[in-house]
Amino acid sequence: MTTINADPAEIKKFSDLAHRWWDPSSEFRPLHEINPLRLEWINNSIALSGKKVIDIGCGGGILAESMAKKGAKVTGIDLSDKALKVADLHGLESGISVHYEKISAEEMAEREAAQYDVVTCMEMLEHVPDPASIIRACAKLVKPGGHVFFSTLNRNPKSYLYAVIGAEYLLQLLPKGTHDYAKFITPAELAQAIRNANLQVNAIKGMGYNPISKIYSLNQDTSVNYLVACTRPV
Questions:
Q1: Residue 108 domain-assigned (yes or no)
Q2: 119 with 149: CB under 8 angstroms?
């Protein structure tokens, strides 16, 4: 029997909050605020309209729905029943069609290898026991010549101060215990895992938050939050 690459405590943590996923003033407010940045960055890298896309660790479907709204045919997968139910319900309310399924990235990669033009895996790698396994699954799911997008948190004293102490305790942007600093991943570590999965790194972007203006922006500073764009060579 294959061991699922997931931490039950992490699944429970997000499941317990699932009913608040689409409330922009809830614990998921940061996701709502960064989503337009993530979406435009992906769409500027590869026009989503008409593309077959899979969102790994889709949660309540914030990114998945926004990509479908751009004209992509989107599948969202997650291991939280409650989050997926919320995603389905919101899709019915919004009229935006996304196919959601409870399945691991690794299982999906075995079933639908090389079937997707675009694979996204955002804010998930720092929540699983074996991020390299997820990266390999993403590499397997994408077609040759297709695009893969990751985002995660860097591991250094600044990211601990900003993403844990600042975001969870001082500014209370996120619930306490959202992140485990030991699971943060440096850009060098992520780039190596991407190369080991036979993907090619194309671009790295930082994401910053101004606590005074309360605005997120993309920049060149990858010291805390960062995004990586890759392709699978033909």
A1: yes
A2: yes
Residue 19: inside a domain, yes or no? yes
Q: Which two tokens stand for residue 52?
A: 């077959």
| Residue 207 annotated as lining a ligand binding site | no
Residue 158 and residue 172: Cα distance in Å, rounded? 17
Identify whether the C-beta of residue 98 lies closer than 8 Å to the C-beta of residue 78. Answer: no
> Which domain does 220 fall in, by range?
8-232
Please indicate, yes or no, whether the overall pTM of this predicted structure exceeds 0.90. Answer: yes
Q: Is 136 annotated as a binding residue?
A: no
Domain count, the chain: 1
pLDDT digits (tens, 9 = 90+) for 77-89: 999 999 999 999 9
**The tokens of 116 are what?**
């997707």
Domain membership of residue 57 (yes or no) is: yes
Residue-wise pLDDT for 148-197, tens only, equals 999 999 999 998 888 788 777 777 777 777 778 889 999 999 999 999 99
> Under a CB-based contact definition with an 8 Å cutoff, are residues 183 and 127 in contact?
yes
CATH of the domain at 204: 3.40.50.150
Q: Would you say 112 and 5 are in contact if contact means Cβ atoms under 8 Å apart? A: no
Annotated binding residue 57: yes
- Is residue 195 annotated as involved in ligand binding? no
Q: Is there a domain that residue 1 lies in?
A: no
Instruction: Choose among 197, 16, 39, 185: nearest CA to 106.
Output: 197
